[in-house]
Design brief:
Strand content: 25-35%
Number of strands: 10
Helix content: 25-40%
Largest sheet: 8 strands, mixed
Shape: globular
Distance between the termini: 41 Å
Strand order of the largest sheet: 5-4-3-6-1-7-10-9
Number of helices: 5
Order of helices and strands: EEHEHHEEHEHEEEE
């Protein structure tokens, strides 16, 4: 289970006004995101992120879209998506509404021998999944901006989660990619008796 999104340096995915124009990727960061989504087998979304990303279902009809954006739209359209919402009654494309809780749906997905990562997006949904201990990796593209408030990337829960740094990368735009794995405690077993 991978949680990957863009975030401001002060930890928000959208600012206090609900805007996220500060996180529009340049060509290099967009290519990186494109490569990342290629490795996804199924994407879980909350309602707000679904409503933002539904644009990509018809982006190929937009005459201003460039070749890389068309490539992303093609991958996104084919990618199976699962939306968690209490208000939506229908979704578009290769998308279905979740019928169970996040824990139930994730359990089913992990039991299915699919290919690629299970990705999750949307701060509210990701916070719920993280509180259940189901996030395995955090992939964060940190933008050099302080937005001063808004929706935080990380849940403001009261639990400590130890992380292991797997990868870093700094782009020419000064965006920094950080990839962490959740450091899970191995169960302690008693030594065998002689």
């Amino acid at each position: 289970m991978v949680y990957s999104m863009s975030v401001s340096l002060d930890g928000y995915i959208v600012g206090p006004d609900g805007g996220f124009g500060w996180s529009v990727p340049d060509a290099e960061v967009f290519q990186f995101a494109l490569d990342e989504v290629r490795g996804v087998g199924v994407h879980l979304l909350g309602r707000k992120l679904y409503e933002t990303m539904v644009y990509w279902e018809t982006a190929d009809q937009d005459p201003t879209v460039d070749d890389k954006e068309l490539e992303f739209a093609d991958i996104w359209k084919r990618l199976p998506k699962l939306v968690f919402s209490r208000t939506l009654s229908a979704v578009q494309g290769n998308t279905r509404l979740a019928s169970g809780s996040p824990a139930e749906e994730i359990g089913r997905l992990k039991a299915d021998p699919g290919t690629g990562d299970i990705a999750i997006g949307g701060a509210t949904l990701a916070a719920e999944v993280a509180s259940l201990g189901l996030v395995d990796e955090y992939r964060v593209r940190v933008y050099p901006v302080l937005v001063g408030g808004g929706i935080p990337f990380f849940a403001r829960g009261e639990q400590q989660v130890d992380l292991e740094l797997l990868e870093t990368r700094t782009f020419t735009s000064k965006v920094v990619f950080l990839r962490y794995r959740v450091a899970r405690q191995q169960p302690v077993t008693a030594p065998a008796r002689p």
